[in-house]
Specification:
Elements: H1 3-15, H2 18-25, H3 47-58, H4 63-77, H5 79-87, H6 99-125, H7 130-143, H8 153-179, H9 184-214, H10 216-229, H11 249-258, H12 264-277, H13 288-308
Helix pairs in contact: 4-6, 4-7, 4-8, 4-11, 5-6, 6-9, 8-9, 8-10, 8-12, 9-10, 10-13, 12-13
Length: 326
């Protein structure tokens, strides 16, 4: 049987458990939070006072931290790209109302609230040039992205496992940092989004664990391949008005490092956590190529650690149009 057919068989096998997986990792819509639960109510007599408080607290936010919050919002807003990409993964039948297609729809429906909530908050805070933010969002959806997974579900689920853990860290760190300045509302917003990301990461990590049980060698080779390519963020093509595609990403990454929201060390720590979660060291039944892949993966965190010690993060030197002189 070809590698392609084996992957489809594995996806079909996991799909039989999708009802239980959906109940475990997706919350019922009627019970879930919505953006309006976390924002001022325009019908509230104290609405304008609440807006003034949001704007006052936003002035206390560090430039790099606000930049990261805006970039995270743009990333979350590019959801149409992510849904269309997942719907194209081998083994996902877009016309189905159950199984993998339902997972993608349910995941998308939960993720959709993140960008909606953050966008509205940034609009209210009065410190963001919303037109520039919207231009960047449209560019990001228009330009698409290349995460080097192809249509292979194994590689795609390695990516989503890693990426959901990364977004959990980013939102959780923002929550921690803004809470120190007394911005409890924004801390709650980012904290609740981070919780969603953690739950979604657990789901994709569960999918990978199931694949390791069914097709360990090919799954190990896929993990190895993704880490050799490096996990790029979904917004790596991010740009502003007048920029070329991807021109902004380096400046945004530097801001995230300076703000200690998402760092090189976090990348290494996520890799280490996945090696442990998937019990990579002890997986049996591997062919020779997969054994070599396992050896590479087990040594990779230490190698990346040595490289990270030589990285120098530049001081602030870039003015983002999202903030400007407001």
């Amino acid at each position: 049987m070809s590698t392609f057919n084996i992957r489809l068989e594995v996806m079909n096998t996991i799909e039989h458990s999708m009802g239980d997986l959906l109940r475990q990792y997706i919350k019922p819509i009627e019970e879930n939070w919505q953006p309006s639960d976390l924002l001022p109510d325009a019908n509230d007599p104290e609405f304008y006072d609440q807006i003034k408080e949001i704007q006052a607290l936003s002035k206390e936010m560090d430039y790099d931290l606000l930049t990261v919050l805006i970039g995270d919002t743009i990333t979350e807003e590019a959801l149409p790209s992510y849904e269309s990409w997942l719907m194209n993964v081998e083994g996902v039948d877009q016309e189905s109302r159950s199984g993998w297609a339902q997972w993608v729809r349910s995941w998308t429906a939960e993720e959709n609230r993140h960008g909606d909530l953050l966008n509205k908050y940034l609009y209210l805070c009065g410190r963001v040039d919303m037109r520039q933010l919207e231009i960047s969002t449209q560019y990001l959806i228009n330009d698409g992205f290349d995460i080097q997974t192809g249509r292979d579900p194994y590689r795609n689920f390695v990516y989503t496992s890693f990426q959901e853990l990364a977004t959990n860290i980013s939102h959780r760190r923002v929550a921690t940092l803004v809470k120190k300045t007394g911005n409890n509302q924004l801390a709650k917003i980012n904290g609740i989004i981070a919780a969603d990301e953690a739950r979604h990461a657990a789901a994709y990590m569960h999918f990978i664990s199931m694949i390791f049980e069914l097709d360990p060698s090919e799954m190990m080779l896929a993990f190895d391949d993704m880490m050799r390519k490096k996990i790029v963020m979904p917004a790596h093509f991010m740009r502003q008005s007048g920029d070329k595609i991807g021109e902004l990403w380096g400046h945004f990454s530097d801001a995230a490092q300076r703000a200690a929201v998402y760092t090189t060390q976090d990348y290494i720590d996520i890799l280490s956590s996945l090696l442990k979660a998937w019990n990579i060291e002890n997986i049996s039944g591997l062919n020779d190529s997969a054994e070599k892949a396992r050896d590479y993966l087990m040594k990779l965190p230490a190698r990346l650690q040595r490289i990270s010690e030589r990285i120098v993060i530049p001081e602030k030197q870039y003015e983002f149009k999202w903030i400007g002189n407001l």
